[in-house]
Amino acid sequence: MDFMKKLTKRREFSSIIFLIVLYVIVGSVNPKFLESDNIMLCLNGATVFTLCAIGMAFVIYTGEIDASIGATLGLSAAVVATILKNGGSLSFAVLAAICIGLIIGIINGVGVAILKVPSIIMTIGMMGIIRGFSYVYTNGQWVENVPSSFKALSQKGVEGLSWLYISAIIIMIATNFYLMKTKRGHYFQAVGDNEDGAIHIGIPVNATKMISFILSSVFASIASIIFVSRIGIVTPTSGSGYEMQAIAACVIGGISLSGGIGNMIGATVGALIMASISRILVFIGLSSNYNNTITGILLISIVVIDAMIQNHNIKKARRQRLVARTEIIAEVKGKEETRNEAYIEK
Predict the structure, then answer these.
(1) Model confidence over 124-165: pLDDT tens digits?
(2) How many structural domains does the chain have?
(3) Which residue ranges traverse the bilayer (predicted)?
C-alpha cells in the first residue's frame, strides 16, 4: 500500500494514466488505433520528440527555457542531409551535427548564465539567427536525395519497434539515473528549486545552466540525425514548432516550468503523447491541422493546473507554519503562566 501511495503521488504517474486513458478512448472510437502496428508507429514516431524533450528537460529543470531547439534541429538536419547527399560519411555527419549543437548551446549558455539575458529572449533571438543561417545554407531550397541506406536505418528494429526508439529509451534511462542518483545531477534540481540557496551552498549555478543549454542543443542536433533518417527531406523550415512540442512534452510529463521538479520518465511519456496527437486526429476523423491548436491547449491547461497546485501547496505550507508558530506561542505562554502562578503561591 505504501508503494502504491508513493507511486500515485509521483508527477509522471498522472501523465502515464492520461496516456492510457487517451489511447483507450481513441481505441473505443476506432479499434484500429489499438492494433499493434499502429502502436509501434506511435512509438517510433516519438523518437525525435523524445530526444528533444530530454534535452529541453535539463533546461526547464534549472528554471529556464530554450526556444531555439527547433531551429537547431533544422540547421543540423540540413547539414547532415547535405553531407550524406554529397557522399560524406555518417560519422562525419554526426560529428558535424553535434558540433553545431555544442556551439549553439555554448552561446545560449553564455548569454543566459554569464550575461544574465532572460532565457526566453536569448533563445528566441538565437532561433531567428539560426533559422536565417538555415535559409542561407540551403539557399532556400529543399535538401533531398539522402542515401536510401541511411533512410533504412529508421526502419530497422525488433518486432516493429525501431532500434532508434530503443536507443532513445536507453538514453532516457541513463539521463534519468544521472539526474536522480548522482551528485552533479542533483545540481540541476537544486538550481531550479532555489537558485540563491544553491549559490550559498557552493553549487556552480552558472556552470550548471551552461551545461543544461549545451545538452539541450546537442540533443536537438542528435534528434536531427534521426529526423533526416525518418523523413529523408529537409526544408528551410524543418524543426519549426518543435520547441513548443518539447516544452509541452515536459510539462505534460510533470516537469514544472518553475524548475526543480520532475524527471525524464515523465518527459518521455509526454513526448509519446505529443507524437500521438496527429495520428489520433486522423483516427477520430479530424484534420491534422488541429495538431498545434491541441498542443497549445494542452500546454496552457497543464501550466495553469501546475500553477494552481503550486499556489495551493504554498498556502498549505504557510498555514502549517502559522499553526506551528501558534502552538509554540501558546506553549510559551502556558509555561509563563505556570511560573507566575508558582511565584504568586510562594
Answers:
(1) 999 999 999 999 999 989 998 899 889 888 888 888 899 999
(2) 2
(3) 12-29, 41-60, 67-84, 90-113, 120-140, 160-179, 213-233, 264-284, 290-309
Say whether both 11 and 90 belong to one domain: yes
Answer yes or no: do 282 and 299 share one domain. Answer: no
Phi-psi domain of 254 (left: phi exceeds 0; alpha: psi -120 through 50; beta: other): left
Q: What is the number of alpha carbons within 13 Å of residue 142 lying toward its C-beta?
A: 8
For the whole model, what pTM was predicted? Answer: 0.86
Kindly state whether residues 148 and 11 are assigned to the same domain: yes
- 108: pLDDT confidence band, cut at 50, 70 and 90? very high
Taking the C-alpha atoms of residue 68 and residue 219, their distance in angstroms, rounded to an integer, is 12
Residues 303 and 279 occupy one common structural domain: no
Confidence label for 326 from pLDDT (cuts 50, 70 and 90): low
184 closest CA partner among 212, 162, 157: 212
Q: Are 262 and 12 in contact (CB under 8 A)?
A: yes
The three state secondary structure string of the chain is CHHHHHHHHCHHHHHHHHHHHHHHHHHHHCHHHHCHHHHHHHHHHCHHHHHHHHHHHHHHHCCCCCCCHHHHHHHHHHHHHHHHHCCCCHHHHHHHHHHHHHHHHHHHHHHHHHCCCCHHHHHHHHHHHHHHHHHHHHCCCCECCCCHHHHHHHHCEECCEEHHHHHHHHHHHHHHHHHHHCHHHHHHHHHHHCHHHHHHCCCCHHHHHHHHHHHHHHHHHHHHHHHHHHHCCECCCCCCCHHHHHHHHHHHCCCCCCCCCCCHHHHHHHHHHHHHHHHHHHHCCCCHHHHHHHHHHHHHHHHHHHHHHHHHHHHHHHHHHHHHHHHHHHHHHHHHHHHHHHHHHC
In angstroms, the CA 83 to CA 77 distance is 10
Angle at alpha carbon of residue 85, lines to 140 and 153, rounded to 5°: 115
